[in-house]
Amino acid sequence: MAEVEEDTSASESIPEVTDYIDDLTGLSEPKGELTFASSSTVLTMPDPIMHPMGQAIGVFLLFICLLGFLNGVDYASPDSGLVRPDEFVYRLSLTAPDETATFRGAVYDHEDQPLENATVYISWDDDGIWNSTEILTKADGSFQFERLDPGLTRVDIIVERDDYRDVYSNRVLLSPPAMIEPIGFTTIDFTIPSPEDFATQPCTNGADECEIRTIDMTPEQMDHPLMDPGASSIYITIGFAFIGLALIATGFTLWAMKTGSIAILRTAASLSFFGMGHYYTACCFGIVAFLLTFAVPKRHITVGEKLPIIGQL
Fold first, then answer.
1. Distance of alpha carbon 170 from alpha carbon 188, whole angstroms
2. Distances (CA, A) of 128 to 60, 124, 125, 131, 154
């Protein structure tokens, strides 16, 4: 009987020892051998150095910004340059609606005294047909016309004095509506020359003496007619705006070339578009530069790779 009991105790299995981590996770430690495998995957990051094509676009943008800057200087210098304020306003008047101009001002004599009941006669060419209108000045010498066509007009101021009719003629550019304004306003004051100045003018009919004496300033005003001083101020303000846009676009371009950001370079191209440039050169070149930014290849470098020093490029 004793031998049977020994066989029973020997056949009992030894209890499995559990690990502390296995109790926490509920997972048993693997019994097989661990197998490790290598991968060819390489960690990369965007290259902070801009692609040479992007650098070339940046140089192109700097040239475009220079065109915009020169255009702004031209606008800010109304007495010189390729484009003058009167030319700018005249171009706008060509596309302006009819009867959207108001012309007002005052008439004074050579002693700066207001002239009452002086006739202000306006005439303008409307597709080959000359239209005209007139009005008398008030006691303070003021006058106002409404619902005129923007553009070039001839203004004759007629003053009757000393049994003569003195006519003072000028070429005037009526301003079109600007921005959200439905009406364009032109304000010009006129100073009539003295009777002695009119007496020195020859008669139009060739006679020695004439009842109607004329001083015609229109031949001298063919290139640059009279215009509202406020329109010149707006023109100069636009010039400074172009200069500011050119400088901002230049800053974005240099920033993009330093950081290698295509997004910033694309922003600089968008800003340079609004610099216009002479004859819209900056607009055309700005569009080309903006489209070229989408063709710049994106480069990546391996993480841990030694980057070149920018100063040594």
1. 11
2. 47, 9, 6, 10, 15
Residue 136's pLDDT band (cuts 50, 70, 90): very high
| 261: helix, strand or coil | coil
- pLDDT band of 277, cuts 50, 70, 90: confident
d(CA 183, CA 174): 11
Q: What percent of the chain has pLDDT over 90?
A: 52
Which residues, 6+ apart, have CB-to-CB distance to 59 below 8 Å? none
**255-263 long-range Cβ contacts below 8 angstroms, 24+ apart:** 256/50, 256/54, 256/58, 257/50, 257/54, 257/55, 257/58, 258/310, 259/48, 260/46, 260/47, 260/48, 260/49, 260/50, 260/54, 261/50, 262/50, 262/54, 262/293, 262/296, 262/298
Quick count: other Cβ atoms within 10 Å of Cβ 56?
Answer: 13
Give residue for tokens 């015609």: 216
pLDDT at residue 223, as a whole number: 84
So what's the architecture of 85-223 in CATH? Answer: Sandwich (2.60)
Residue linked to tokens 């105790």: 9
Every domain of the chain and the residues it spans: 52-76+235-312, 85-223
In the numeric block, the tokens 């007009």 are attached to 153
pTM of whole model > 0.85?
no
- 209, amino acid identity: E
Residue 112 makes CB contacts below 8 A (sequence gap 6+) with 191
